[in-house]
Amino acid sequence: MLWDVDYTLVNAGGLGTRLYEVVFREMFGRELPAVAPKAGRTDRAIILDTLALAGVASPGEMVDGFLAALARLSASGTVRADVRALPGAAAAIDELALTGTRQSVLTGNIRPLAALKLGLAGLGDRLDLDVGAYGDVHEVRAELVPAARLAADRAYGAKFAGHSTVLVGDTPLDVQAALVTGARAVGVATGSYSAASLAAAGAHVVLPDLTDTGLVVAAVTGLTASPAGQRPHPLPAARAARAARAAPRLAPGLPAERLRAQHQSCR
Fold it and tell me: How far apart, in whole angstroms, are the C-alpha atoms of residue 217 and residue 97?
């Protein structure tokens, strides 16, 4: 299975944006005016749009250099932030490990940045990052899935076709990446997108968060908990959408644009 990182496993406290700002200053000698939308996108795509927004000439020609500088700075660990694991993340990973589930990440972050965030959150040694897929591979998130499958095939000597690959994430782009590659999509409404949005995107299962490990394991494995276990089933996407519409909302009236801006600023 493949975890998303930002707002699925961790709140990065704006670490990615800080790193972008430092790299931009080093490369162009001025402050970065703005960062392009991030939620669910890969660093390669975000950087291209960020450079274009900043008025950089021929931004496509500068992306690889920016990625390389970002990798060096991330690996150095000199830029820090208050990165925290989201509630239930560590326990969910540990519980899934007990089932024999192979776990890595499919993330828009480049690997050194993903490793930095996960390490600061105390999750780095719980996942096999060697078989993950990262944001330098392609602008389109779905293109990361074949890369992760190939890495897992080589590492474990097993195929992970169809629903034997499970993507867990908090954005519709996570869900889309799973659906177009035939994987199982588990949405987690811990970011700026509601359970209803993730259900509408086509997630097979939607969870409110990761705090109930029984729900997480059932969602990922597709297994039904026995009645004796007293563990509730994960909400199928349609039921999750209805529940989300009926539930009281946090910060009523807050425009979706502001919610997403708050979300991406913490990546």
Answer: 10
